[in-house]
Amino acid sequence: MNRKLFTSLVPAILIPFLIITSGGCHKTDDSQVQITDYSISDHWLSMPVPLKSTDVFYVYPTAWKRTTSDGNICTIDNASMHTGSISAYARQATLFDTTANVFAPFYRQADANYVLSLPEKERWDFISGIPSRDVIAAFDYYINHLNNGRPFILAGHSQGANILLFILSEYMSQHPEVYSRMVAAYVIGYPVTQDFLTANPHLKFASGPDDTGVIISYNTQAPDVAAGANPVVSDIVGLVINPVSWTRDETTAPSSMSLGSLMPDASLRFHKVHNYADATIDLKNGVLLCSTANENALLPLTAVFGKGVYHSFDYPFYYYDLQANAINRIKKFQAAR
Length: 337
What we know:
Layout: H1 3-9, E1 44-46, E2 55-59, H2 79-91, E3 101-105, H3 112-116, H4 120-127, H5 130-146, E4 152-157, H6 159-174, H7 176-179, E5 182-188, H8 194-199, E6 214-216, E7 220-221, E8 261-264, E9 270-273, E10 280-282, E11 287-289, H9 295-302, H10 319-336
Parallel strand pairs: 2-3, 2-4, 4-5, 5-6, 7-11
Antiparallel strand pairs: 1-3, 8-9, 10-11
Helix pairs in contact: 5-6
């Protein structure tokens, strides 16, 4: 992809959020599949000339529309996935543009409808195949050929966040010198459990706004969503940090505290909205509650998950809070070094 063309398209292409489609489902045998070659520039959504002192390695959420002729994994050159990934970048990764060089690989994604239908163990096993193998290969190429020793942030959403857990658990444990340069990992839209951290003692979850080398995670929904009705988390209880107050308790951060949301208008063009989203942690169910969003108004964009499941808005609701936090953690990391 031409990088100048990519830059011009980001503000303009805003398709509906994560697309879930129906179709016959079976696990794909990827044992003989060749890993994508990330020395080829066309296999990157974003490969900037680095002008800043910190990088972001971004993994977008499910971004392709499965057709009847597709399997459960898309190809690396799937046109729907390319278009959807640009849209995802626009409402998520642009928050890092002001402070970091954002690198983002294309990768062969799993069909979301299939993945969300699986029990947690099978979902994990499936994502550990082609999708994670591609992204880990891209990250390894990035570290060895593009990063040049700079500090970096990991950022992802949904399927992209799930894949980041493989980088954190596998790659970082094998490459502690790389992990030492990680400012933070924004693993948003997929639950990070205490069991995962216990199995990976080299990792730690964020405890506040300033700590570095940590994981930030939450999954957003309305307070009236029944327990277990959110298909993203199902009955998985994840750890949560409040993206407005940056605390771990259940104290509500009112919308007046938020630095702003990035919300769509009637034409699905995004703009800053002040005082839109509050945030309260539900520790029992391991989710983040937003009570101030208009469930009915957002239903056309959330219906695939269910009314009040704000998965598609995990980043947009707290866009400017996340932006300020990333800037702050970079400053703290640099000061410590």
